Amino acid sequence: MQRSTLREQLADALREEILAGRLAPGGEFTVREIAEQYGVSATPVREALVDLSAQGLLEVEQHRGFRIKRFSLADFRYMIEAQTLVSDGILHHNPALSLREAVPEAFTSIRRRAAAARQAALAGDLDILIAYDLRFWRELDGLLGNPHIGEFLDRLRVACWAFTVPHLRRQTGLAGRLWAGHLELADAVERQDAAETDRLLRAHRSHALALATQLAD
Question: From the CB of residue 2, how many other CB atoms can be counted at a distance below 10 Å?
Answer without folding.
Answer: 8
